[in-house]
Every structure is written in C-alpha cells, then in structure tokens.
Amino acid sequence: MPFTNRVFSGIQPSGDLHLGNYLGAIRRFVPLQDTHECIYCVVDMHAITVWQEPEELRRATRELTAAYLAAGIDPKRAIIFNQSRVYQHAELAWVFNCVARIGWMNRMTQFKDKAGKNSENVSLGLLAYPSLMAADILLYKATHVPVGDDQKQHLELTRDIAAKFNNDYGDSIEANGLDREFFPITEPLITGPATLVKSLRDGSKKMSKSDPSDQSRISLLDDADAIAKKIKRATTDPEPLPPEIEGLKGRAEADNLVAIYAALADKTKPEVLAEFGGKGWGVFKPALADLAVSTLAPMAGEMRRLLGDPATIDSILAEGAERARPLAEETMRDVRRIVGFVG
Ligand code: ATP
Ligand code: MG
C-alpha cells in the first residue's frame, strides 16, 4: 500500500450500534482511507468479555460490518475483518498480559464502570481487555489510532505496554538485529471536534450500546419513524435554546442535542445556536429529527440491504482476514524470537 502511516481501529460487535458509534468512530474512519493505510476490525473477541449469545454475536458481527460498508469504508482499500479469524491477536495479548501490571488494569475507568461493585465476579477477560486492545493495535504496528474520548485511557495504556516491552526486551530486540523501538508509540488521531454523544434519557451518561434502555440511543438500524420519535421524547429542560454557547453550561441534555445537530450538519455549536437561539424545543426537536432522518435513514436502508445478503458480508470479512494475517504473522514471528520461544 502506498501510505507510510497505518491506522488501526476496532469496534465491538455487541448490542445495538448507535449514533455515538457513528459520529464518534465509524464516520471518522472514512476519510482516513485517503491518507493512511487503514485496518478496521470487528473485535468479536472483546465482545465476549461480557456474556454474548452466540447467535446474537454472529448477527452483531454482520451488522457492524454492514455499518462500516454503508458508511463508506471501501473493503478494497481498507482491510475489514473480524478479530477472531486472526489468532495472532490472542497470541500477542497473552504476551502483553505478562508485560502489563495488574495495577494498570485496575485503574482503567472503563473496567470500574463496567464492573461496578461486582469486580470480583466479572470475567478475567474484562479486566485484561486493554491488553488485547494493545495487541490489536501493535500487531500491525499502527502509527495512529482514531479514538473517542472514552478510549483515550486505553490508548495510553497501549503506549505504556509498547514502551515496557521495548525496554524489558531491549537487549533481545537488539540481539535479534531489530529496531530498538520495536513497537511504535502509537499516537491518537484527533479528527475534528470530539463528539461524545450523550444518552437521550440522561445527559450525564454517554450514549452506549450496553445501556438497557433502547430510548437512550438512536440505533443505526432505526427507521425514520423511530428516529423522529426518540428525538421528540428526548429528555430536555423547559428553557428555550440560548443564543450563545455559554448558555449551555449546566444544561447537559440541551448541550447534547445541539452537539448532535452540529455534528450531523457539519456545523459548530455556535453556528447552530446562531440559527436556533431563543427558539423552543417545539421548533428545535422537529428540525433535529428531520436532519437526523435525512442523514441516517439512507444509511440504515443500505445496512438492511447488505444484511439481506450475509454471504457477501462473510466473504468480505474472510478476504480482509487473508490480508491481515501475513501482517500479523510478520510481527509475531519477531515477537516469538524476542521473547525466547523456540520454534
Ligand atoms: P459499550 O457500552 O459496550 O462499551 P459502546 O457504545 O461504548 O459500547 P464501543 O464498542 O465501546 O461502544 O465503542 C466503539 C467506538 O465508538 C469507540 O471508538 C468509541 O470511542 C465510540 N463511541 C462509543 N460511544 C460513543 C459516544 N457516546 N459518543 C461518541 N463516540 C462513542
Ligand atoms: Mg465502550
């Protein structure tokens, strides 16, 4: 491939894909295809860190692949595949489990959020999740990862793991004639303003696949009617929209709807407020609903069309894995030598 920089990113096939996944991740993946070599993974091994019904996991894997394709990721340019097909992810994750420290894992806010008070009873995989994520990225020596705000801490940990591996095994890396910076210190890629979309029911929580309430998120497969209804029912306060951005302080739900409008319209929040400042929800919500329907409903339609032909989706994943495997094996061959595995 002609690019010097390589991007890796992955999304878990678990639960309902939603507007936050689209605005915060999938949509940002598309333009990177013009400037970077891109590897976009369906991280099914991450999905089983919490219980997944096997049939549901298969469905969600195809749904996420369909979303990548419908959003404009081109499987001829980018490599699209599901993680479990390339076993080197698991192999490198094991090595990283032995490089990373338990204290590092215990500090991860996502683990604390997901485990809650139940931290003794969640899977060991949920605790080790960041090690597998580091393996995903470093297996391909990705130079850049487009990350949402909620994933920044995991990328920092990936950098820590890379640095500790390079340092702990420094002598062996050198003895094998390899570059001292064997694993790159991967950089976050910030493209445009970071939109962390919040729940439609509670502006203090992020929109999330794992939220039990379907009303909290706009799913990428929602039809026009469902999108409009969810926006109309979204929690707000009684005040009209402020004319200036300062007026959104302390109004998390209002801020969220303005941010969604801005992201979908490719505008800034002040531009949106210049248009809607002083107007009430009776004006803003229908305008937002129209905008959301016109941008998201065609994508939902394309996803449904693709999902009608699962054999084509499966063959795209299989071909992507064929392209990923030699890259992964090239790294693992060196890692086995560096660590001291015979064979
Ligand atoms: P879960 O609740 O299972 O963690 P999730 O909705 O957070 O699911 P992930 O698979 O963890 O989804 O994240 C996929 C990608 O979507 C990540 O790049 C993440 O940064 C992004 N993302 C997730 N939620 C949001 C959100 N509310 N706003 C913006 N980006 C988001
Ligand atoms: Mg998440």
Can you give me a brief rundown of this structure?
This protein is mostly helical and 343 residues long. It is 54% helix and 6% strand. The two termini are 30 Å apart.
Query: Strand sequence of the main sheet, in spatial order?
Result: 1-2-3
Question: Distance between the terminal alpha carbons, to the nearest Å?
Answer: 30 Å
Give the helices and strands as they follow along the chain.
Answer: EHEHHEHHHHEHHEHHHHH
Total strands = 5
Measured on Cα atoms, how large is the radius of gyration?
A: 21 Å
Tally of DSSP helical segments: 14
Strand content: 5-15%
Large-scale geometry: globular
Going by helix content, strand content and strand pairing, the class is: mainly alpha
Q: What hetero molecules are bound to the protein chains? A: adenosine-5'-triphosphate, magnesium ion
Task: State the low-pLDDT regions, or none.
Answer: none
Helix content range of the residues, please?
Answer: 40-55%
Quaternary status: single chain
Q: What is the average of the pLDDT values?
A: 95
Largest sheet: 3 strands, parallel
